[in-house]
Design a protein that fits this description.
two-stranded antiparallel ribbon; 5-stranded mixed β-barrel; alpha/beta; 305 residues
């Protein structure tokens, strides 16, 4: 955070593209300014409201502080590595899926878990619907627990109006596996979106490596949409492992009836969640997804589960 003196002499801005310690911010007058971050302790991400100062004409402005975040999406690298924040101040999260590559529902569950814990609304966009219809039976578990399913096509534009209506306010976040067509979908939602990528390449002076950046785009409704790099795997950074159960809506709700208030829903006696799984009231694959995330998060935190 900035010192009081630095903040008093700074201007406010919104980070609309972030790559390492460089990026682009939007000033109060709407202008886009390349920035650099002051100090190694300051970790800036897309969606941050920041304090910045300008020093020399033609040079990037300097970000010296971050306003308190409403929430943040962070991923946990292997054990011992520091969590990486992907984006901040998110109101909507859209998990993009497609028939190819084959959907990894365990990754989808982890994104939905993170969204719920952030207090963000979440939905699934089934892209390339013109090639393969939405697999209603496979994804019925998500509709049953309240997640909207949007069959969309970046190629034909079908279904996009409904998706835009759902995310018509606030800041949305596009996430998903590599190869599901997020870039094509983004280009359809935001014509000319390649312009921001080019600006970030120039600002960061790292060319093609900006494919690992997060970039925010304006929508016609006035809302914003952040695009993130496609992933092969994703583990949300959740400091308190007990919160993971609450990120799985049906597990968190059912867990209120467990014998023990701190039940992990893994091996304790009189566990309402385990009983609900056996009775078919909680989907077995979703429960296995919960178990896997508890194990992965526990390994990353050096805890055994």
């Amino acid at each position: 955070m900035a010192t009081d003196a630095a903040r008093d002499s700074s201007k406010a801005g919104l980070v609309i593209a972030a790559h390492g310690r460089r990026g682009i911010l939007e000033a109060a007058d709407g202008s886009a300014l390349p920035y650099v971050v002051r100090g190694r302790q300051l970790q800036v991400c897309c969606g941050d409201h920041v304090h910045w100062q300008a020093f020399a004409d033609g040079d990037p402005v300097v970000v010296n502080g971050i306003a308190p975040r409403r929430n943040q999406l962070s991923r946990q690298p292997p054990r011992g590595s520091k969590a990486e924040t992907i984006a901040a101040n998110i109101s909507h999260l859209i998990v993009v899926m497609a028939a190819l590559p084959a959907p990894d529902l365990f990754i989808t569950d982890r994104y939905l878990c993170a969204a719920h814990l952030m207090g963000a609304k979440a939905a699934i966009a089934w892209n390339k619907a013109e090639l393969a219809p939405l697999p209603e039976a496979e994804l019925a578990v998500y509709a049953a627990i309240g997640y909207p399913l949007f069959p969309v096509s970046a190629a034909t534009g079908s279904g996009l109006d409904a998706l835009l209506d759902w995310s018509a306010q606030g800041i949305g976040l596009l996430v998903g596996q590599s190869g599901v067509g997020k870039s094509s979908l983004l280009n359809r939602l935001v014509p000319g979106s390649n312009t921001a990528t080019g600006m970030l390449s120039a600002a960061s002076d790292e060319g093609r490596h900006t494919t690992t950046a997060s970039i925010m785009y304006p929508l016609a409704s006035g809302a914003r949409l952040i695009d993130t790099p496609g992933v092969r795997d994703f583990i949300p950074a959740i400091p308190d492992l007990r919160d993971i159960a609450h990120g799985f809506v049906e597990i968190g709700t059912t867990g209120r009836d467990c014998r023990f208030a701190d039940c992990s829903h893994l091996r304790e006696p009189d566990c309402a969640v385990s009983a609900a799984v056996l009775a078919g009231r909680i989907d077995g694959r979703r429960y296995e997804s919960y178990r896997r995330l508890m194990n992965l998060a526990g390994q990353a935190a050096g805890q055994a589960y």
